[in-house]
Amino acid sequence: MTGKAYSSVWLREPRKATSPGRSREEIVRAALELLDEEGIDGLSMRKLGAKLSAGATSLYWYVANKDELLELAYDETWGAITVPDPEEVGWREAASVTAHSVRQVMLRHPWLAHLLGRLPALGPNAMRVADRMRQTFKLAGFTGYEVDYAVATFTAYIYGMTLPEIAWNATMVDGEYDADAMRAQVMKAAADFPDMLERIDMDTYEDPRVMRAVAFDFGLLSVLDGLERRLVT
Amino acid sequence: MTGKAYSSVWLREPRKATSPGRSREEIVRAALELLDEEGIDGLSMRKLGAKLSAGATSLYWYVANKDELLELAYDETWGAITVPDPEEVGWREAASVTAHSVRQVMLRHPWLAHLLGRLPALGPNAMRVADRMRQTFKLAGFTGYEVDYAVATFTAYIYGMTLPEIAWNATMVDGEYDADAMRAQVMKAAADFPDMLERIDMDTYEDPRVMRAVAFDFGLLSVLDGLERRLVT
DNA sequence: AAATCCACTCGCACACTGTACGAGGACTGT
DNA sequence: ACAGTCCTCGTACAGTGTGCGAGTGGATTT
Question: How far in angstroms lies nucleotide C22's C1' from the CA of residue A61?
Answer without folding.
Answer: 14
